[in-house]
Each structure stands twice: as structure tokens, then as C-alpha cells.
């Protein structure tokens, strides 16, 4: 179902269950797929193809043709097949186990799973669903390696499980749901199993009320680690308040002189605990503000300037040849590789350096940077300014 995207998607369930209004707040903001997400899509295509071939769903000729297409993708890499093989191997192992219990066990790949009975217009795509007597098993490939993802009480997996239950309940009378995340690049295989009745209880008591609120844009904005992938993470006031008021709200009741003026070890522990979230938040705000400034937004007290940059040698061979002609020995010019610009400048003197090596050294333009207006560097003309001049 290319291009179709549910407002209350399974992959964002952790966010909209904790912060229901975030769903409507972000619905009109364009999705920008990161390079990591695109790489994950290539790995998923490879996993699906390998499984279809191993399950004899496609002939060798089709397999080879499709494999070549995947290999031609710019984000395909030499190590991708080994990582994906961990996932496909796990699926084949689980399928063999399911077949040993019930001969007519079924496996579905990239299956659309409809959980709209609990979540308005809710659907998602399960990488692998295995159905056998009494057990539904979901296996999800996660190709990222930034954050280890656990299957324990994972709402994305539980939503897939609900979709699979809804679809296949009549077939095998499932009693238990087994959910596994395979994250091969960091050796993480995480499994969580729960009785179907617990899954349905969670769906009625926790999921459905949160989904109804999220659908109608009600509830409280609530910041936390789930803000990480939210599309308004850099401009959200609730997230800003959460980070800015953190230290004040967490101060211990200690009215001694030290207690009033100095942070206690327990308070520092809490700051350390929050450090990653605060760093991520600052990075999000800075990146967003820089892009907006490049697009023409002006921030009071700030301006865009060219960032600092370092000189680089454009032709190492010519630099060496020039200095050897001037009687410098190779020992003087090299450590293990050619010495850096500052060392060479010290060696030959600033004036001679400019005279002899000037043609082989450039200073590339620095990246645009947002700095206080008091900074001495001249303000950059943005593309937006140029455009305004033309009209
Ligand atoms: S950034 Fe966080 S608090 Fe703000 S809307 Fe998104 S999830 Fe909610």
C-alpha cells in the first residue's frame, strides 16, 4: 500500500499513547524519510525476497532479477546480506518449530494488519506472521543500530499482534502471542510472549481510550523519550517546558546554605539521567532553527554567518615536490603521512609558505551557522534574501 499512512500508526504508538494530541498536531507536517529509514527499507526488501525464495514462493530467475535490483540500490552494502540472514534464519527456525507442532502452520510476509477495531483507521505491515495451533508469532526486522529496541510491552508489536489476531482468530484459536524483534546489527533478538486475553485486556483498557483521545486531538501533551521521533520535537512548548523546568522541579527540600545553593549528588544524578534528552532537544532546536533561518526566518538577536573552516591541501604531490626542490628532506615533511598545514607553515615560515605553497592550499567555505548578532563575522545572504531581491 505505497504512500498510504495511518494517522495512528503502529510505529508511532509509543508516542501517541503517551502524548495523544501529538497525532493531530503533526498530521499536516510532511514526512521526511531519513537515510536510515531508507536503508531499512532496502534491508526489508532483501529480507522479504530471501524468505520468499527460501519458502519456494518464487523461482530462482525471479529471485536473481529482484536481487540485482536491490544490489543496485545506493544504500545496499556488502554487509547487508549477513545482517539480513540473521533475521531470515530466525524466521525459518521459528517456522520449522511451528510446523513441528502443527503441520499446516502458515507464514505471511509483509502482511497488512488491520487493528481498526481498537484504533480508528489503524493498520500496519507485519514483516512476518506465523500462525500455528494456539500461537500467533510476529517477527519484526529492525535494521537500525542507534537504539536497542525491546519487545517487552512494545505497543508497536502489540498492535501488529492485535491485527494478526483479528485476521486469523477463526483459523487456529490462538491462546498466546509471541512477538520478536530482530535487530541484527547490534546482536539484539528480543522476545515477549503474552496470553491473548492479556493482549485484549490491554487493547480495551489502555490502547482504545488513548487511541480515541489521539484521534479526536484530546488529552494532555506529555513530553518524554517518545518525543524523539515527533515531527514537532524542535518547536513543541511542552517539550521545552519539560527540559527547561527540569532542574527546578526536581530540587530536593534542603534548606541548609549548601542545599539552597549547590546541587546535591542525588540532584546531579537526575541531571545526568536527563542529559541525553536535553542534548537531543538542544540539537533538534538548533538544527530546526538553522534550516528555518536559511529559509528566511529571522530570530531576534541572531544572524546567519559563514562558519569557521580549516585550510586544506589540494595537491599533496606538488607540495612535496616544491619543498624538496627547496632542499627540505622527506624526514622533515612527513610523520607517517605528510605533516599538517600548521606544521609545514612553521617549518618553512609564514611568508615562504604563502609564496611556495599558496597555490596548493585552499580554505573551503564554512557551513552556515547561526550566531548572536554581536559576532564580528558579516551576515550571510540567504537564498530567501536573494529571492526577495529578485521580486
Ligand atoms: S514533542 Fe513530545 S510533548 Fe510535544 S507533541 Fe511531540 S510527543 Fe508530545
From TrEMBL:
Keyword entries, A-Z: Hydrolase
Keyword Hydrolase on entry: yes
Source taxon at top rank: Bacteria
InterPro entries xref list: DUF2800 (IPR021229), PDDEXK-like_dom_sf (IPR011604)
Stored Gene3D superfamilies: 3.90.320.10
GO molecular function annotations of the record: hydrolase activity
Cited Pfam families: DUF2800
Protein name: DUF2800 domain-containing protein
